[in-house]
Specification:
Layout: H1 4-9, E1 15-17, H2 26-34, E2 39-42, H3 49-62, E3 67-73, H4 82-91, E4 96-101, H5 108-113, E5 117-122, H6 125-133, E6 138-142, H7 157-167, E7 172-175, H8 181-189, E8 195-197, H9 199-202, H10 211-219, E9 225-228, E10 236-239, H11 242-254, H12 264-267, H13 270-276, H14 300-323
Parallel strand pairs: 1-8, 2-3, 3-4, 4-5, 5-6, 6-7, 7-8
Antiparallel strand pairs: 9-10
Helix pairs in contact: 2-3, 3-4, 8-14
The chain binds flavin mononucleotide.
């Protein structure tokens, strides 16, 4: 399949793996790129720019296909040295950066001078237009369903994607709630040129996280996520667990007066404990509603091949079948 996104990034399939804290290591990024998608290393999971340089080198050893690096600009307990991270990205020969959180405007000159293509993840049409105006090459339009930070507009992808298509000139991928061929075909129908998946890629053989995490995603339903940190305007969609129950209790007690320090124990340092040690209740960790669509733990290649084969079947048989007047055309079942 060819779209503006496959052409822009030099990939075989219009499928991107979004940056994920303590998940987006070289193992997953290279597996996605080797399977024809675009794998992304999560920059800030590497505690220093030197460690990021090593992770990029490790990924180059695992794939000769294009892969990217995610740079997230979100409120943090300490501000990372972004210019040094960008230097590591440039010197590592990376040509694609996924930015997220705040606008990457102040870093665009450095990224563009290095010949890097920037795909910015946005949760609204206005932020997508801003990304286009500051010279981003593409956007990842992230609906309310998404795991991680859905923003504060609560706009689901059924509305957000067609609205983005109405306004944007640069290509965009659909992000949030994407799991299979049905997601991809729907995203393409709504104007996207591909899709970005986060949560679905965690439940794959190559994702270098504890098996408890993969099992939890297979077991979870679409009803099992919660929104935290709303009062801080730093909303995050996470999987419900004991720490999240406590966090929500504190949020109810504090109301609008909530400070980040009040929930420090539930949010700080949770990721290594969850993703590496498999302690699922150690704190709040991002997860999309799409968990309800995850039923297995395939290899990345099996997942991507299945999506592309099912997408072709849905388009050729089901959709063209309707046009040909076959009301009984096969349902959009996926393997
Ligand atoms: C465990 C986890 C960690 C994430 N960490 C980051 C991150 O560090 N930076 C970022 O830009 N997005 C992060 N995301 C968001 C993903 O890149 C992606 O946009 C999102 O998962 C898409 O929604 P989905 O989970 O419904 O596929 C994370 C998502 C998950 C599930």
């Amino acid at each position: 399949m060819k779209t503006a996104i496959t052409e822009m990034f030099g990939i075989a399939h219009p499928i991107i793996q979004g940056g994920m804290h303590y998940v987006g290591f070289a193992e997953l990024a290279s597996a996605v790129s080797n399977a024809g998608g675009l794998g992304i290393i999560t920059g800030l999971t590497q505690r220093t720019p030197e460690l990021l340089a090593k992770e990029i080198a490790r990924c180059h050893d695992m794939t000769d296909k294009p892969f990217g690096v995610n740079l997230t600009f979100l409120p943090a307990f300490t501000t990372p040295p972004y210019p040094e991270y960008i230097a590591a990205i440039r010197e590592g020969g990376i040509k694609i950066v996924e930015t997220a959180g705040r606008s990457p405007e102040q870093y665009m000159p450095a990224l563009k001078a290095a010949g890097i293509k920037v795909i910015h993840k946005c949760t609204s049409v206005r932020h997508s237009l801003k990304a286009e105006a500051i010279g981003c090459d593409a956007v990842s339009v992230d609906g309310f369903e998404c795991g991680g930070h859905p923003g504060e507009d609560d706009m689901p992808n059924m509305i957000l994607l067609p609205r983005a298509a109405e306004e944007l000139k640069i290509p965009f991928v659909a992000s949030g709630g994407m799991a299979d061929a049905r997601s991809l075909v729907a995203a393409l129908a709504m104007g996207a040129a591909g899709m970005n998946m986060g949560t679905r890629f965690i439940a794959t053989k190559e994702a270098p996280v504890h098996d408890n995490v993969k099992r939890a995603l297979v077991a979870a339903s679409e009803l099992d996520t919660r929104l935290v940190m709303r009062a801080l305007r730093n909303t995050e969609r996470v999987l419900k667990n004991k720490a999240v129950d406590r966090l929500l209790e504190i949020e109810r007690e504090k109301g609008a007066a909530l400070k980040i320090a009040d929930i420090h124990d539930q949010v700080a340092g949770a990721y290594p404990k969850v993703m590496i040690d498999g302690d699922l209740d150690a704190g709040a960790w991002s997860c999309g509603m799409v968990a309800g669509l995850i039923k297995d733990v395939p290899t990345v290649k099996e997942l991507i091949d299945r999506i592309m084969a099912d997408a072709e079947r849905i388009i050729r048989e089901r959709l063209v079948g309707f046009l040909d007047g076959d009301a009984q055309t096969k349902p959009a079942k996926v393997a």
